[in-house]
Amino acid sequence: MPCSNCLSKKGEGFGSLPAETVQEYLDFLVTGQEAHLSQDKYYWMADSYPAAALSLRSASAENIVLQVNDGSTPWTLGEVEYGSAPWMVHPRAVYLHEGQQYFVQELNLATQVATLIPVGLDYYTEPQRQTEVKILTENDRSTIPGGEKGWGDVQVTQQVAGFKKLRWFTRET
Q1: What would the DSSP string read from start to end of 88-113?
Q2: What is the chain's mean pLDDT, rounded?
Q3: What are the structural domain ranges in the chain?
Q4: CA distance 151 to 160
């Protein structure tokens, strides 16, 4: 019977993982003081759940800080993932946050800061992106129902070629 308030019981497997493999991982967590073993049960003991440190939007650890200059002391609105910044907060973009429009004055990738000012415009911006996928190496390929599958190395290049200014409701350019 699985334990409801613990990570695992000693000797339990998980899915297709045998008990010995699970035991290795749990012992590692105990060594790092992330888990605690008590009466043959492992309990999570860190301040937050392990998945709390993972972003659902990005695998990148680097972010661009969105700094608002509204005439008072500059303040931080939030962050966007580094790789998304060129199309989300490029200079002259209109960034929306909680119904408020912000005009992007500057995007500095070196300092990882985008400078925004609050505005009230009758338009929004839409980036014009171009993406190219190039297969570098193909390690395996096989036929499956409805197509083919394969794996290897690819190079994905994405570029923002420009942006459109579109009027609210009519989408007039």
Answers
A1: HS-TT-EEEETTEEEEEEEEETTTTE
A2: 88
A3: 8-48, 63-125, 129-161
A4: 28
